[in-house]
């Protein structure tokens, strides 16, 4: 036979074989298409969510992510006269040009147009409420900070001579300013009045109100540099409350402000806000490094010792850390999905070859060469794989642009190579395969060799699984370098390899258990059960169906547990962040307690508790630190916590117990030195001694926290009027908003939870986990159907013969269920248990707290839906039993007897 004949592909044979087995080929193509669309569409979807997450984190950071250049004015010479500079606003614009030119091109492309401002230091306002300060501000940029003058006019120059020379002993220089309607109402002034302000050296200033304005667009970016120009801003500290009132300067009055105030009291700044839409995972690392270099270059951009400052690099690092965490978790699910789909394709190829084994043997007997037969099978397989892969890629492209071409490669490789390889092997065994030797010792040697090969394969899988699990628990799925993709490969394989190892272990135990059951039933009288056990002992050795069911069940359970843990963790994180259904933060005072009483008496509010919340310093015997202080009625706060899912805090009762040594306090801190000896809290003009009597309840972001009883704190001589109200009930948020009006900020727990749940990364991971679980259940069902089809013919012949001996239909159905259900149910249960074990170890290695916004990793949650794999197996076996029973009823006993005789 010539090489051409040996390697030739007989096209009619390919077409005829494909036509005869069109059902299995269509099934294989469908699995290839579904696996391809998932493997091609899901990674880009995760990448798009990661890019959106970077933009979302930067957008939520607000002005904290701005890049700000602070350029002081040239200092004034002491005792020298000052010359009025009418081009002061032009110098500000010049600073903007120089700052923009100093930025690297890649960083400038990711920033919005700059905002420029000149603001004064806090100027105390005398004769009014203590704590009020005035801040002069000139802003430019955005849409120009446009205003409508409701009274008076815009500030103008205070002199007709633009470049007047002013002597230092000429008295306060007048400065015209504009006030917002809220600021004018707070100060009780109008056009033509003066604001009694002083400079930091307590020298009187001549601040004249030229007009009252209303902003045209309060959301204009220009107001970001000085938000107190819109309305007075309240800042609550541990001792005092500071109210900042903005006074608007014009280009003309800016020159007067430079005369009235020393250069040290004016701050010239240029602010660049990042454009969230221009930031993604690809440029986050580069831009973070550029920001650090820009900050290090302070003093080299413009004259006057300028300084660059920004937290954008920290914001981008946090975003990259979250993205790396989510991407690593997604890779865990994607690796399991691709691996299980490849096993299902291998099972489909095995079933196809089993179906056509006799035909392949006949072709081989008639003289077909193995290379030629392999070429025919490869051509058929490539055609099916190409059609299925093309359909999957088209569907993936329809779902989203730029589908992945890397993740589907393992699936396409298995789909293209497994059928011809198994077919050639089956044809070779049918005609010239290895014969069983007659010598007993030789047969033992062959069996021992096969056992050693299987043990080596299983040992390799076991070692790989152990290595992956060790890497998972030592390093977690999140790499030390968020931009390194290779570091997460081995930990990402851990769940899949662990599930495969568990399946191999169970496969070792199943034949032993089946033989024990057969041996036990052989001595009994239950012939039907004995026949079922005997059939199970012969079919349980098929590894692929059991392997697919076990691995898919484990990964489905893991995905369901991860999604439930994430959802529950987000809910718990929202409760911790808010502390109730809604919380109000406002200016401290006795009116807050009255507001809480009114809220508690409103329908839809169960409890409303006032408290004072402030950031304070703690002074210990050997250490100092900072903490969040909560001054609250301990009994009321305990009742409030009892109405929430937060952990109850019975230690709150200790705060009201009398004792010596200071005010009883509950403390949460990571510094054990603070717990040694006495502890003092600076408050007002003195210190309040504290006596730690227990741990603080789970509240806030997990940082240091001190909780004291309001009555005990007041008895120690500390005045702490409340500034916070916690409220529970379905209408808590609406009631607090209505009672507080514009005087406070209300945070509603459900709103916060919705924002976190709809964030790009958590939402994408939740959808991916649920989709992975659904795909795993479908693969388990497919493995069940293909595995039962592999033994359907032999099982049908056995039951047909038993029917001639009087076997009833009900008993036949029980025999089919008894043969199929136990091994598959054991695989599903084993996989389910392993998935739950992996999920219980998941919060730490998978760093779930970065996605749930909790201070520590959430407690693992096992939902009832993890029983879905077992339910799928039971329902699938019931369906197979019904189908086979229907097919058997169509057979006549006479036909069965004739077939049996043949």
UniProtKB/TrEMBL annotation:
Q: Where are the transmembrane segments?
A: 332-349, 377-399, 411-430, 451-472, 492-518, 539-560, 771-792, 820-841, 861-883
Q: ABC3 transporter permease C-terminal domain location, by residue?
A: 773-887
The protein, known as = Putative ABC transport system permease protein
The similarity comment for this entry is: Belongs to the ABC-4 integral membrane protein family.
Keywords from UniProt, A to Z, are: Cell membrane, Membrane, Transmembrane, Transmembrane helix
Q: Which organism is it from?
A: Motilibacter rhizosphaerae
Instruction: Identify the domain of life.
Output: Bacteria
Give the bilayer topology: Multi-pass membrane protein
Sorted alphabetically, which Pfam families does this protein's record hold?
FtsX
Note the InterPro entries from the entry. Answer: ABC3_permease_C, Macrolide_Exporter_MacB
Q: Which residues does the annotated region (Disordered) include?
A: 69-94
Q: Report the main location listed first in the record.
A: membrane
Q: Give the matching PANTHER family.
A: ABC TRANSPORTER PERMEASE YTRF, MEMBRANE COMPONENT OF TRANSPORTER-RELATED
Pull one GO CC term from this UniProt entry.
plasma membrane
Recorded GO molecular functions are:
transmembrane transporter activity
- UniProt-annotated location(s): Cell membrane
């Amino acid at each position: 036979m010539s090489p051409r004949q040996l390697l030739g592909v007989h096209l009619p044979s390919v077409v005829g074989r494909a036509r005869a087995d069109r059902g299995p080929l269509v099934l294989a193509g469908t699995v290839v298409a579904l696996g391809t669309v998932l493997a091609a569409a899901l990674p880009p979807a995760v990448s798009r969510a990661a890019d959106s997450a970077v933009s979302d984190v930067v957008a939520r950071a607000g002005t904290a992510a701005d890049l700000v250049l602070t350029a002081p004015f040239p200092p004034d010479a002491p005792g020298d006269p000052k010359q009025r500079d009418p081009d002061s606003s032009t110098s500000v614009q010049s600073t903007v040009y120089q700052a923009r030119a100093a930025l690297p091109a890649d960083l400038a492309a990711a920033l919005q147009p700059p905002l420029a401002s000149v603001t004064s230091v806090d100027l105390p306002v005398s004769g009014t409420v203590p704590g009020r300060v005035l801040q002069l501000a000139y802003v430019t940029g955005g849409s120009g900070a446009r205003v409508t003058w409701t009274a008076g006019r815009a500030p103008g120059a205070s002199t007709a001579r633009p470049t007047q020379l002013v002597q230092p002993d000429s008295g306060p220089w007048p400065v015209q300013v504009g006030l917002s309607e809220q600021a004018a109402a707070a100060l009780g002034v109008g056009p033509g009045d003066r604001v009694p302000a002083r400079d930091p050296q307590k020298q009187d200033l001549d601040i004249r109100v030229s007009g009252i304005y209303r902003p045209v667009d309060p959301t204009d970016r220009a107001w970001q540099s000085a938000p107190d120009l819109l309305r007075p801003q309240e800042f609550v500290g541990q001792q005092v409350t500071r109210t900042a009132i903005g006074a608007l300067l014009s280009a003309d009055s800016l020159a007067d402000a430079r005369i009235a105030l020393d250069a040290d009291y004016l701050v010239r700044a240029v602010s660049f806000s990042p454009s969230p839409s221009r930031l993604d995972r690809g440029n986050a690392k580069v831009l973070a490094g550029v920001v650090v270099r820009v900050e290090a270059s302070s003093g080299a951009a413009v004259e006057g010792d300028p300084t660059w400052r920004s937290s954008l690099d920290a914001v981008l690092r946090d975003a990259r850390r979250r993205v790396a965490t989510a991407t690593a978790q997604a890779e865990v699910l994607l690796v399991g999905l691709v691996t299980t789909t490849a096993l299902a394709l291998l099972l489909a190829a095995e079933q196809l070859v089993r179906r056509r084994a006799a035909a392949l043997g006949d072709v081989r007997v008639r003289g077909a060469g193995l290379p030629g037969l392999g070429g025919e099978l490869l051509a058929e397989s490539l055609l099916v794989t190409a059609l299925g892969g093309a359909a999957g890629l088209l569907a993936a492209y329809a779902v989203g642009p730029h589908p992945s071409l890397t993740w589907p490669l393992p699936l396409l490789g298995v789909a293209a190579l497994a059928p011809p390889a198994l077919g050639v092997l089956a044809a070779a065994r049918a005609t010239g395969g290895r014969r069983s030797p007659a010598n007993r010792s030789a047969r033992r040697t062959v069996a021992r060799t096969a056992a050693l090969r299987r043990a080596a394969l299983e040992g390799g899988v076991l070692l790989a699984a152990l290595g992956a699990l060790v890497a998972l628990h030592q390093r977690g799925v999140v790499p030390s370098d968020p931009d390194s993709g290779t570091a997460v490969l081995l930990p990402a394989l851990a769940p899949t390899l662990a599930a495969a190892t568990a399946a191999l272990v169970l496969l070792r135990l199943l034949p032993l258990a089946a033989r024990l059951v057969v041996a036990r039933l052989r001595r009994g009288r239950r012939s039907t059960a004995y026949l079922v056990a005997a059939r199970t002992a012969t079919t349980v050795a098929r590894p692929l169906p059991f392997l697919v069911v076990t691995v898919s069940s484990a990964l489905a359970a893991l995905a369901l547990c991860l999604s439930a843990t994430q959802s529950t963790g987000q809910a718990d994180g929202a409760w911790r962040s808010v502390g109730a259904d809604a919380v109000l933060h406002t200016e401290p005072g006795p009116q807050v307690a009255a507001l809480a009483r009114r809220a508690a008496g409103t329908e839809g509010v169960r409890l409303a508790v006032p408290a004072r919340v402030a950031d304070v310093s703690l002074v210990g015997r050997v250490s100092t630190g900072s903490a969040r202080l909560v001054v609250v009625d301990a009994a009321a706060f305990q009742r409030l916590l009892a109405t929430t899912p937060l952990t109850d805090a019975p230690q709150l009762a200790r705060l009201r117990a009398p004792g010596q040594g200071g005010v009883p306090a509950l403390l949460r801190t990571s510094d054990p030195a603070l717990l040694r000896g006495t502890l003092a809290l600076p408050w007002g003009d003195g210190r309040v001694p504290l006596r730690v009597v227990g741990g603080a309840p789970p509240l806030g972001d997990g940082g240091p926290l001190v909780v004291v009883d309001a009555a005990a704190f007041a008895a120690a001589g500390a005045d702490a009027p409340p500034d916070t109200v916690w409220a529970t009930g379905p209408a808590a948020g609406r009631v607090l908003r209505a009672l507080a009006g514009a005087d406070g900020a209300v945070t509603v727990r459900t709103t916060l939870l919705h924002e976190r749940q709809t964030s790009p990364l958590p939402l994408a991971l939740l959808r991916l986990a649920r989709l992975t679980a659904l795909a795993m259940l479908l693969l388990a069902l497919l493995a069940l159907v293909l595995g039962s089809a592999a033994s359907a013919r032999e099982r049908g012949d056995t039951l047909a013969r038993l029917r001639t001996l009087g076997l009833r239909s009900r008993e036949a159905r029980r025999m089919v269920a008894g043969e199929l259900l136990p091994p598959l149910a054991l695989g599903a249960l084993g996989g389910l248990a392993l998935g739950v074990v992996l999920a219980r170890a998941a919060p730490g290695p998978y760093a779930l707290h970065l996605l749930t916004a909790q201070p520590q990793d959430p407690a693992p949650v096992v939902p009832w839906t993890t029983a879905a794999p077992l339910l799928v197996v039971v329902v699938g076996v019931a369906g197979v039993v019904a189908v086979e029973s229907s097919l058997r009823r169509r057979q006549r006993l006479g036909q069965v007897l004739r077939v049996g005789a043949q």
